[in-house]
Design a protein that fits this description.
This protein is α/β, with parallel strands linked by helices and about 325 residues long. Helix content is about 50%, strand content about 10%. The protein contains 15 helices and 7 strands. The mean pLDDT is about 90.
Length: about 325
């Protein structure tokens, strides 16, 4: 594990091929056919959408776009169209190219309209792989141009299979990190975040860096990476500019992770460290939901995180 300090667990343990991907047979069968169609992968955060996109684009000429931040029509004109129209040869023949549209549910209406035309124009030379959490945010005319695959379990058998595979994978990583656990605690640890493997990996790395040697009921809900953010949320809103600078410098590059932590881990933080404030949790959770919903509609997502933290401060200190 000597490389773990330099490399995120989410990247170190990201599946590199279909054989190491945790997915039911329904999904692996679809993916084993290759890029014969455009793919739209949708499902819960951290379930493996981006990992599958990276696997499918391996050994191809590709362009990666984070459609939640590069979400306007100019991206279609200046980057995607130029990429699709360029020639990539292999053995004297034009090679199939791939465009990755990650987090596409954050794109604008103009983006979607322009995308439809580009997909049709370059259908012979380009395939598109898109990912999203919320397929209902993707217009029907765009959905119809993809083979849409849900990565969430669709029945009890798939859920049981996926959960068991998570136990094997997470248990192996905990052991490699020198963290002991009981079967009961492992079950509870995974259920607490299932099916978000990214959250589980981030928590394990937090434990590893903090020197935790045993996973137990007293620590498996703690996310050390965001403790400073949680403490800031509990503090009085009397230093707005200092708070602003801290959030920008510490969490500007991990906005989604911070907002997810405020959705789940913050509740456990309050329960453990500030139980006298638990009566404010309904208002906190409502605020988190509101700001997460607004996130895709703001020019800079960091504003949503800043506003959410300030709102929580006000709620908890009223």
């Amino acid at each position: 594990m000597s490389q773990t300090i330099q490399q995120l667990f989410t990247e170190r343990f990201r599946p590199k091929d279909l054989a190491t991907l945790i997915a039911p047979a329904r999904i692996k069968t679809e993916l084993s056919r290759g890029l014969v169609q455009n793919l739209l992968l949708y499902g819960s955060p951290g379930i493996g959408k981006s990992s599958i996109a990276f696997i499918m684009m391996k050994d191809t000429t590709h362009l990666y776009i984070n459609a939640s931040s590069e979400r306007g029509i100019d991206v279609i004109r200046e980057r995607i169209s130029k990429f699709c129209s360029s020639i990539s040869l292999e053995g004297g023949k034009e090679k199939l190219k791939v465009v990755i549209l990650d987090e596409m549910d954050g794109a604008t209406e103009e983006f979607f309209k322009a995308l439809r035309a580009v997909m049709e124009k370059y259908a012979n030379v380009c395939r598109f792989i898109a990912t999203c959490n919320y397929i209902n945010k993707i217009p029907e005319p765009v959905q119809s141009r993809f083979n849409c695959i849900s990565l969430d379990p669709i029945n009890a058998d798939e859920e049981a299979y996926t959960f068991n595979e998570y136990k094997i994978r997470v248990g192996t990583i905990l052991t490699a990190a020198g963290i002991s656990y009981s079967p009961e605690i492992l079950d509870r640890f995974i259920k607490n975040s299932f099916p978000d493997m990214r959250r589980l990996m981030n928590k394990i790395q937090s434990f590893y860096l903090q020197g935790v040697k045993e996973l137990n009921s007293g620590n498996f809900n703690i996310n050390f990476d965001f403790n400073d953010l949680f403490k800031l949320c509990v503090s009085k809103p009397d230093k707005p500019y200092e708070n602003y600078k801290f959030i920008v410098s510490e969490f500007g590059s991990k906005i989604d992770e911070a907002m997810n932590a405020l959705s789940f881990d913050f509740v456990e933080f309050l329960k453990t460290d500030y139980p006298n404030k638990l009566d404010k949790m309904p208002l906190v959770i409502i605020s988190v939901a509101e700001y997460q919903a607004q996130r895709a509609n703001v020019i800079d997502p960091l504003i949503s995180l800043l506003a959410l933290v300030m709102k929580i401060q006000i709620i908890l200190n009223q």
